[in-house]
Amino acid sequence: MSSKDNTLPKTFFKDYLDLVSLDLVLADAKTFLIINGVTSKKFRGKWESLAERLRSSDLKGITLNNQDRIIASLFADDTTVYLSQIDDIHQLFDILKNWCKALGTKFNEQKTEIIPLGNEEQRTKLIEERKLPGNDTEIDPDLRIAKHSEAVRILGAWIGHKVDNEAIWNKTIDNINSTLQRWECSNLTQEGRHLITNMHIAGKTQYLARVQNMPKSIEKRLERITRNFMWGSKKTKYIPPVKTTILSKDKESGGQKVVDIAAQNNAIELRKLQLYITPERPKPKEAYTLNEILQRSAPGPEAYMDPKARTDFFQQSWQYGEMGKKRVPPFIKNMLKTAENKNLTLTAPIISKEAKENRKIWYHPSTKPNRRLPTEGKLARKCLRKKHKINTVGDMLALTQMNREEHG
Fold first, then answer.
1. Regarding predicted confidence, which is higher, 318 or 273?
2. Which architecture, in CATH terms, is 16-159?
3. Domain with CATH 3.30.70 in the chain
4. Backbone angles phi, psi at 157, to 5 degrees
């Protein structure tokens, strides 16, 4: 840098970019703007410009509860764009190509895959006609549309409809078995075997279990693989001299701290639940997506009740019913089942005044059984929720302090 005015030399970028690629320069870059002395928030270099271009476009994307619009999610150079049935896919490709042209890069259409959304009839129609339901524009024949039972890999997760989850896990199981077979050629101690199981079995399954969920059959296979490797046995039905439950304990309790696959999976599900019920604002969009799925899974007339009244499955008393369980995706069902098995409830012996006032007023868990409240009535819908934006106990208390003129 220049010692006089602390600015970069004029030839800095020319000389520097001769040595490294632009991707390396912008990999962790963050940009901010200064206009009339006002500094903007920092944002990610080139990728944020694409996200902003998509957000400012006419593409509708997906809307949650008629409020939050989801148009794109970006991670490094992986981009997922969500289109509604009336969006024009060619408009999307025009945006991508113009953005690539401005940056001097190339858009890789060969790696682009389309995952249909909607019910089975809508998905089949899109696959056969190669058109979005509300648009007459045909999708380029070179673009691959995922069919039923075909999984598309996105950031390590396999996404699709009617996907065989066990088949997805088989590759990971084969990889683990291959690695453990190579280690069997060494003269391993119990301590060494413990380290290897934690490194290869736990390490290679945690992320996939987080994003894909682990079927019970795969969980049992991994438990058997762990048990047999710890004792150097190749038998399918092997009874070890020490129970696996003891081996998974710490050394002070007579164990080896061997990975407990079932406990690991429970911890993953509870961690997801923690993110869902976190009091932080704003919540991640996944939490609102989960709520809407649960709301729409309710059977009968409950499916058409006001979604603004049912905003938090765990902090409120509404349920989605036995019939609704069939409509809930496995990744949500596993999380809720784990919470139920662990007797997880939101209770506190002492709760602050602020916490009480922050509780949801609608479907309040402390409401007495069979108590008739206007939760779904006209008064609650149009006056309390729509006009006065009543959502919490504190909101309702504030409303009681209003006089007739303020109420209007």
1. 273
2. 2-Layer Sandwich (3.30)
3. 16-159
4. -100, 150
